[in-house]
Amino acid sequence: MIARNCIICNKEFKVFPYTIKNGNGFYCSSKCQFESMRKTLLLTCKYCNKKFKSIPADKAKYCSQSCAKKALIGIPRSKETRLKISVNLTGKKSYIWKGDNVGYMALHEWVRKQLGTPSVCVGCGNTKAKRYEWSNISQEYKRDILDWERLCLSCHKKKDTEYRNTYLNGFRIKDSIGRFKS
User: Fold this and answer.
1) How many domains, in total, are found in the chain?
2) Cα dist from 10 to 4, 50, 56, whole Å
């Protein structure tokens, strides 16, 4: 237990740490707590400079929630600061980073952000296709930039169809003579 002083009568009392963590533990008794509700302080709002009343336990800085929001949200930041914040919240530094446990669509989005939008097919050399995609070479879908190639839609479909016909449930398929399909 932690020793604290009552903010009304200044008497020392003990309180559990979780009580302080929950934002309580200001008063030694319910009598002092009710006394504080009668005792109010006259404070000045830090946003609009308006006078307002508050009880000591509130530790209020603003006269209303709208002033508090305006004061906290309206902090002007330079372009340099905004750039630093955005850089520090992307990639592995992000709180939602999943590493290799990422889903199919998110992984493709990550590859597109890293490598850009493809504009030429590596398979056929086509530069006039309507759509190009990033294709995974090993079909293991890892976060490895070298494991991706640019393909037009028709080459990508051919490659995926060939892969599905060659491999079934992770095993290579043999043809009727016993040779592995290539």
Assistant:
1) 2
2) 9, 30, 13
